[in-house]
């Protein structure tokens, strides 16, 4: 499965989305060795590429990336608006994460503070065959600055099939992504800009991803939830 984004306005996606290749980190103190990060420079996406990213009616809700918006810009009101589980009574609030300004990627390893780069989540601990059925992550930018969602265009099931002969018995992992890129296999990274009050719902168990505040002069804080949400549970941003 390739990256599939739900959108109505192709030009609006092009205005806030850019693409880059990726690279492996080596001997960079703030990163784990072998982490996958955007290589730059960022380039605008063409109309043809934007069209290729468009989700269809056949795209499973669990595999869909949606860019969403809220009515409020005040942090307290934004969180109050999302107090409802949005159709999933078992949705889980994961908390908030503060990110400094001008960070290429934002997620760090809590054990030593080094950033991990593009990665896949493993909250649901799913084997290869079920990995595409994981919960999607809802992320809301609480501000004060803008931030980006980084998304790889190849899912971790396809990556796992490439790097392991016995992929059917595997639990696809970020290490598989690092092996894939280290073998010079193709992967594009897209970044989509999110202002305060904007966010995404994305299959972060399935797609390589991370946050970023690169080129942004202000820090931002993101709030996160996990759930099995149907498409269009929040208003579309694009």
Plain-language structure description:
There is one protein chain. 16% of the residues lie in helices and 31% in strands. Strand 3 and strand 4 form a beta hairpin. The relative contact order is 0.28. It has helices spanning 10-16, 47-53, 75-81, 156-163, 174-182, and strands spanning 5-6, 17-20, 22-24, 31-38, 43-44, 65-69, 92-99, 115-117, 136-144, 147-152, 189-194, 198-202, 209-212, 220-227. It has 238 residues and is α+β, with helices and mostly antiparallel strands.
Shape: globular
Low-confidence stretches: none
* Overall average pLDDT: 94
Helical content stands at 10-25%
In short:
The chain has 238 residues and is of the alpha+beta class. It has helices spanning 10-16, 47-53, 75-81, 156-163, 174-182; strands spanning 5-6, 17-20, 22-24, 31-38, 43-44, 65-69, 92-99, 115-117, 136-144, 147-152, 189-194, 198-202, 209-212, 220-227.
Summarize the topology.
Blueprint: E1 5-6, H1 10-16, E2 17-20, E3 22-24, E4 31-38, E5 43-44, H2 47-53, E6 65-69, H3 75-81, E7 92-99, E8 115-117, E9 136-144, E10 147-152, H4 156-163, H5 174-182, E11 189-194, E12 198-202, E13 209-212, E14 220-227
Parallel strand pairs: 1-6, 4-8
Antiparallel strand pairs: 2-5, 2-11, 3-4, 6-12, 7-14, 9-12, 9-14, 10-11, 10-13
Which terms would index this structure?
Jelly Rolls; six-stranded mixed beta sheet; five-stranded antiparallel beta sheet; 5 helices; 14 strands
